[in-house]
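User: I'm writing a tutorial on reading structure tokens. Could you give me a worked example: one chain, its sequence, then its tokens, then a sentence or two explaining what the tokens reveal?
Assistant: Sure. Here is the example chain.
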Amino acid sequence: ERAVQFRHAVYDSSYQDPKAQEKMTEADRLFAEGRYSQARKIYKKLADNQGNPTDLAERARFFQAECRFHEGHYPEAVDTYHRLLLDFPAGAYRRDACNRMYQIADYWLNDFRDELARRKDESGILYWRPRWPNPFDRTRPAIDQEGRLLETLNNIWVQDISGPYADKAMFWCGYINFVRGNFQEADHCFSQLVKFHKDSPLLPHALLYAVQAKNAATGGPDYDIRRAAEALHLIHMAETSLPEFTQDPQLSERLRRAKQAIRQQQAEHDLRTAEYYERTGHPGSAVFYYELVRRRYAGTRYADLATQRKEHLLALAQAGRPAPGNDPWAILQAKWKEWFGDPQPAVTPASSQVPAPTAPTQSAPPLNPSSPPTSATETKPGVPNPLPGDLPDHGASVPPSGKMP
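And here are its predicted structure tokens:
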């Protein structure tokens, strides 16, 4: 018997252990006595042995992670809980493992909260700052604590999407990325929360952050702004289906500013499209887009600028001297006709006085991460405020500040 046990121990880690239940009882006794290190070794052997019954192996893996948790080895505990979820995705300890992982993640979030309080007077995106790790602190990862935090929060949501902490985990995941300026990832997280957690108390705030993240993720009016159209769709959904935005004046004002920021970026995008056609020597297309800006954004400075540019191009066309743009061949042809060709009728005084207006400019005030996020009307046109405001009031509508037991 000893030879068989030795062969199994050396060559095969999966065998049917007749004393598995006795070993489990002994490990439970050590765990109850607080001798976690000794109990953890027994639990690990039972969980690694694939020849043991499934329920026994699952229970052994969970209590192996519990030993790590009570010893204060939180990174190792998170890894063990995650391995349990991967090996037994529909097991009996899935919900308990996710709850423990959120407790640890919330403990790591305290450093992020302290950083926000410490850097509340800074403007701009709060980029991550490295710090010297404490090699004697087993409760935190030695390196890349924020990366491990985001990974843990995402695993909680993936493994238990209907759990009590799934919406809070996804909210924090999106909020951290939003503060760091990772708007595309923040957009994904907040959009997932809005889509799958319609009964969450964090839904109104997540929707606002999703709108701002989508508008900021475009990269500005010079790029594809389909995300801005998606953000506008979210605003229409909020106005029609969420009573919080009509009952809370502050939320209603923030939603109005976000909508104004999106329309401003769309207007600047269309205006720059018209300027591109004018610059490349396509006055007909430029006039079309200027007219589009006039009709879509009537009453704004973009509409006034489009009107001036359209009248200027039409005056040149009526005079028989359409703008050649920056095409060298078109410019050479225009100059040749002007010097050697038939004399062209002069531009009428009214049309010749049409100035070539310049693009609107607007200064950007300093951004404060501790104040509510504002619209692009307070920043550079087309570049929305990249920083979030205060989190919702602590209580049922916001992930609580974590204190480890």
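What the tokens reveal: The CA atoms of residues 144 and 390 lie 25 Å apart. Residues 344-398 have pLDDT under 50 and may be disordered.
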